[in-house]
Amino acid sequence: MKIVFIAGPYTGDGTYESIERNIREAEKYQIALANREIGFFCAHNHTEHFSSKKGATPPEKFYYDLDFQFLMRAADSVLAMPTWEKSWGAKREVEWAQKKGMKIFYPKDPTDIEEIVQWAK
Fold first, then answer.
1. Which position has the higher pLDDT, 50 or 29?
2. What is the spatial distance between Cα 20 and Cα 11, in angstroms, rounded to a whole number?
3. In the chain, domain spans
4. What is residue 52's DSSP assignment?
5. What proportion of the chain, given as a percentage, has pLDDT over 90?
6. 39: Cβ–Cβ under 8 A, 6 or more apart, which residues?
7. pLDDT score at 56
8. What angle do CA 105, 114, 4 make, to 5 degrees?
9. Topology of 3-120 in CATH?
10. Cα separation of 18 and 20, whole Å?
11. Rounded CA separation 99/58 (Å)
């Protein structure tokens, strides 16, 4: 199974509401890929709201570094959400994938994944 790493904004303006909006937007891509039986990893849900959960004390950088490990070790391609350029984390992920020659997809929305489906099959 090929794994698609979903890259896009997480923090936004830093408010809980902005983070929640970004998580739910990324989730739409996860659902679209899952419905087509395409493997994926999405940092948005991997550590969803951990930075604001009681008892979770690592600095935010820990979560970015942790999720980056999944890109480096497990991903075969990157799905860059339409707003990826607004995120320093997503820019870092896309830049790394480009340097490694990974396939990067730029869908317009969660329904625009046919190129990914064809690649993954």
1. 29
2. 9
3. 3-120
4. G
5. 81
6. 1, 2, 3, 4, 33, 120
7. 72
8. 45
9. Rossmann fold (3.40.50)
10. 5
11. 29
pTM over 0.90: yes
Residues with Cβ within 8 Å of 44's Cβ and at least 6 positions away in sequence, in order, are 6, 8, 10, 22, 23, 26, 27
79 pLDDT more than 90: yes
Q: Helix or strand or coil: residue 77?
A: strand
Q: Which residues contact 42 (CB under 8 A, 6 or more apart)?
A: 5, 6, 26, 27, 29, 30
Grouping H, G, I as helix, E, B as strand and the rest as coil, residue 42 is: strand
